[in-house]
Design brief:
Layout lengths: L1 H46 L4 H11 L6 H5 L10 H14 L2 E10 L5 E9 L6 E11 L2 E4 L1 H9 L9 H7 L51
Helix pairs in contact: 4-5, 5-6
Keywords: Signal
Family: Belongs to the MTB12 family.
Protein name: Low molecular weight antigen MTB12-like C-terminal domain-containing protein
Length: 223
């Protein structure tokens, strides 16, 4: 009986240890599950697509002269590093030109999980309404903001060229105007304007109908 009692005590003690260990494991599993749920919830919140009304509020704040500088800075991607002239021009474009911006549905997922694309109608007095498609808004610092590139696009389409901020002029630099040929690669002749023959390479005869180089007789017509 004595040995059986000791054995029973040892067995009971072992069972208690096992139960404690199981309890600890369950606690760790619960904590891990809670952390995973929190991470998933955070990701879902960051990826939640805003409504057209919410994006309209961003544009309204960006162009509101009564909004504080901090409020306007928070409406554009990387606003703290943006030329302040951009915000002044956005405000002026609304006040002076009478430009109106309106985001319309649908708002669609963008190029990254932290961006969305929307259509923006913008109108100017005495002009036909314009439609800007795939206007990008980005999720930054826990809020949606207008991308820098599209802030510049809206500005350049609503103010005179001499009022466009330098940072927006730089973005448009190097783009050939509509109807003009793109510049030729270095070391190659530029393409001739439409309707004119391209110049012949140095040392080669000019094509039929092309003017002869200065100081040289024109080639005789083919017999």
């Amino acid at each position: 009986m004595k040995f059986r009692s000791i054995g029973a005590i040892v067995a009971a003690a072992g069972l208690s240890v096992s139960l404690v260990a199981c309890g600890d494991d369950n606690g760790e599993d619960e904590n891990t599950g809670q952390e995973a749920t929190q991470e998933t919830t955070t990701s879902e919140a960051a990826a939640e697509i805003p409504t057209a009304d919410e994006l309209n509020q961003i544009l309204a704040t960006a162009t509101n002269p009564e909004a504080s500088v901090e409020e306007r800075v928070n409406t554009v991607e990387g606003g703290e590093n943006v030329d302040p002239a951009l915000f002044d021009t956005l405000t002026a474009s609304q006040a002076e030109s009478g430009a109106e911006f309106q985001v319309v549905d649908p708002v669609l997922p963008g190029y990254t999980p932290e961006s969305v694309l929307a259509t923006v109608n913008f109108t100017l007095p005495d002009r036909e309404p314009n439609v800007a498609e795939n206007v990008e808004f980005v999720y930054e610092d826990d809020q949606w903001k207008l991308s820098q590139s599209w802030a510049c696009t809206l500005v350049t389409n609503t103010v005179e060229p001499d009022q466009v901020p330098a940072m927006c002029q730089d973005q448009g630099a190097g783009q050939p105007a509509e109807g003009e040929p793109a510049p030729a690669p270095e070391g190659e002749p530029a393409p001739a304007p439409e309707g004119e023959p391209a110049p012949a390479p140095e040392g080669a005869p000019a094509p039929e109908g092309a003017p002869a180089p200065e100081g040289e007789p024109a080639p005789a017509p083919a017999q």
